[in-house]
Amino acid sequence: MMRGRNAWTLAAAVAVFALLCILAVAVTEVRLILMAAFCLLVPGYGWAHRMQLKDRGDTLAMTVVLSLCASVLVGTALAVSGLWSPLAGLIILVLITLGGFAPIPGVAPFRKEFKSRLVQRPGQRKYLGQRKYPRG
Fold it and tell me: Left, alpha or beta for 106 (phi > 0: left; psi -120 to 50: alpha)?
């Protein structure tokens, strides 16, 4: 029973994706919305996910920030160099996206790497404004 349900779900997802692809080619407004969503979310997601932030909202915010930075950087580089091409920009953003998801051998995720540095030593102040010896 579950196998049939998964098949219907997959068929529905493929149908929706095919419809969006057809609409993106035929209707300019849909293409604009899809490309804006792509440029805001996709290039930075792999890099933000690699940071392993505690909150999903933080991950989403970091995704948007990194994606905007990548999109602006690629667009500026293509415009300044005189090699402006929307297809080239899309290909470069896809490569940046794939770089975020690609495993880098010998490099731990950011959060695990810095976790060992956050160990507090005896007598060390936990916060910058905290007194070493409490009043009392």
Answer: left
pTM of the model: 0.63
Q: What is the pLDDT of residues 1-29, one digit of tens each?
A: 456 677 788 888 888 888 877 887 788 88
Contact 45, 70 (CB under 8 A): no
- The most confident of the ranges 49-53, 76-80, 92-96 is 76-80
Domain positions in the chain are 30-102
By the 8 A CB rule, do 85 and 78 touch? yes
Q: What are phi and psi of 126, to 5 degrees?
A: -75, -40
123: phi > 0 → left, psi -120 to 50 → alpha, else beta; which? left
Is 19 or 109 the better-scoring residue by pLDDT?
Answer: 19
Give dist(CA 42, CA 62) in Å, integer: 12
| Tokens coding 49 | 């996910």
Structure tokens at 125: 């102040």
What radius of gyration, in Å, describes the C-alpha atoms of the chain? 22
